[in-house]
Amino acid sequence: MKILGPFGLIILVFVGCTSVEYQQMQNERERLREVYEEARIKNDRRIPKDRLEKEMLGTWQFLGIEVLESDLSNEIERAATSLDELSRKNLTIRFFEENGIRFYEGNNGSIRVTGKFSVYVERIAEVLYPELGMNRISGIRPGAFLFNDRSDGIFGGPPGTSNVLISVQENQLHLTLGAGVSQTPTPYGWVHSDGIRYSFKRVE
Fold this sequence. Notes:
By secondary structure, the chain is an alpha+beta fold. The chain has one domain (about 50-200): Lipocalin (Beta Barrel). It is built from three helices and eight strands; from the N terminus they run H-E-H-E-E-E-E-H-E-E-E. The longest helix is centred in the N-terminal third of the chain and has 50 residues, at about 5-55. It is elongated, with a radius of gyration of 27 Å. The protein starts with 5 loop residues before the first helix and ends with a strand.
């Protein structure tokens, strides 16, 4: 049996310490990577959220409805869209901020609505989906006011569960119901592959 001398024992101790230190370094690198990735994802979501919440401030006049994809026949589709557009020809909605809280107020003939709004950003397969959240203070539900939808499902539920995608492009605001997942992101972060888009033009 070979007995290690003092020098051999020193080498073994040194190698053992090196292995422990190396593992600690690897663990620290992994922790930092996870922290960085979490911060990057939060930043990716915050940028379009902040941009949209600023760009949508102002007053918007209803412009029109576009069916991006539908199983309905053209005749039924045109009739339904025409009725919706006719009932909204005088509809305006104003998004504004007071004391750091964001509000909306809408008018459509004798109908008046008020409430709070926010933008949430979902990330699905590296594609960002900005969603509009609206909480009523007075008047009819925001889904009924904007889309003639009486259900609670459009804006209901906890933050991030809205199914209304929102975008602002130059002087137009687009709200899209039932939009599908795009395979190719755009500079705006997402593309509508189906759904019904309600468009508004900036008037103030």
